[in-house]
Amino acid sequence: MKSDTGKIKTLKQLIRTIEKLKKERKTIVHCHGVFDLIHPGHIRHFTTAKKYGDILVVTITADRFVKKGPERPVFNQDLRCEVLAAIGVVDFVAVIEADSAVPAIKTIKPHYYVKGSEYKTRKENANIPRKLSEEEAAVSSGGGKLIFTDEITFSSSHLINSYLDVYTGATKLFLESFRRKYSSEKIINDLIKIRNLKILVIGDAIIDQYHYSAPIGKSTKEPITVHRYLEEESFAGGTLATANHLAAFSSNLHLVSLLGKKKSFESFILKHLNPKINVKFFYHSGQTIIKRRFIDQYTNQKLFQISYLDEEEIEDKLAGSILRYLSKQLPKYDLVIVNDYGHGFLTKKIIRLVCRKAKYLAVNAQANSANYGFHVISKYPRADFVCIDETELRLATHERWGELTNLMKTVYKKIKCKQMLVTRGQYGSQIYSLKNGLAHVPSLTRKIVDRVGAGDALFSIAAPCAFLSFDQTLTAFLGNIAAALKIQTIGNKNPLDFKEMTKFITRLLK
């Protein structure tokens, strides 16, 4: 970070400077924000803020705490600091390693903390988290006062969306059209409706293990590359991840899954599941599924994977216990979500029971290395909402080159579903229903950290949206939002967050 102007400080340096200035009876004014793209509204805001005191301190949110969705911030924290330091009325700039201004306010204890006019007029919504009240309390506790400026305002998000090359041309065109039909407030209020649904989630529990390494060189005795072990971490994957995503939106969630008796990982799983989730585990004779991936830590490239899983369906006695339990539970829920990874948990009898008794059934039947070509969505005689990727659709229809829409219609008729969503990676997703025809929603990010779990995140949000009869373009849009957020993190380290999702939606639609 360049600091030749003397304006850019670390937080420790800033504290010492502020203490000295206060002893000189200087009045300290503080502004905080992301300040990703400086515009005339910011300049006027800073100019007005400086009138309240002698010293204007501007703090910014560190890159890793900016929760405005993929591609943000556009400019990293060093560049943002440089731009702010170049503004004449700004005396000092510092980066805050937190997701709010509260730690900075408590440290600086400004005489005046200044916010823009848009915060003064904004009405608090109990359903959408706000930080202004926390900031005001922090200012008051330090003996300061909260002030609002009354200057012209611009939306940085709108300017970035409109004039910077963040999205492809197709995505820009889609968003322009989408904004004319939907407001972020309307979409967020619709999302809140998921909260009251009674949801049952069924599927395999999977432990995702990431082992990070660094290449040393070629083995002197074998034609292999040798890597040095660095560290490892584990995540709750598979249906566990789906349940965790849903827990951010639903307050009545029940998970039914399968663990192994030999190595259950139950304590780890319970520790990594949202405590709001009501769980019911069944146990087979083997071990809980583990998918261990070996990663080059510096390139984030996956090198190799080992899967610990059984090759056979669960034993008849266990299947009988599951059937009896589900037979009683299925009628109790508004929405039943099935993540079928084809690892033996969901037998033909269990599938038939679920299809027969679920009031509304949403299914994702996943193709993977352990079941490729044998596990297809057509195993389900009925589903209300189907969510699969393009490869899974082609496997189900035995059509490698066929036109995608026609293939969707073929599976749609066979399963007698109400809606079908097909994901296409960088090309976004397509959603189809007989009533509304076909809609396409493009991908909403070009930044990818890890693709693992993206489909599960998309499915977990799209399924309740489909149940609530959202417009199908909106259903696919919200699913793509979830996927775009998910691929910004390694594995299933962080489940979807309601607050982060609403920020991304608001930013996209400005």
In short:
With 510 residues, this protein is an alpha/beta fold. 36% of the residues lie in helices and 24% in strands.
Describe the structure.
Helix content is 36%, strand content 24%. With 510 residues, the protein is α/β, with parallel strands linked by helices. The protein is globular, with a radius of gyration of 26 Å.
Question: Span from first to last CA?
Answer: 31 Å
CATH homologous superfamily caption of the largest domain: Ribokinase
The fraction of residues assigned to DSSP E strands is 15-25%
Which residue ranges are poorly predicted, with pLDDT under 50 across at least 5 consecutive positions? 123-129
* Overall morphology: globular
Helix content: 25-40%
* CATH architecture name of the largest domain: 3-Layer(aba) Sandwich
Query: What is the domain total for the residues?
Result: 2
Q: How would you classify the helix and strand content by structural class?
A: alpha/beta
CA gyration radius, whole angstroms: 26 Å
Main sheet properties:
12 strands, mixed
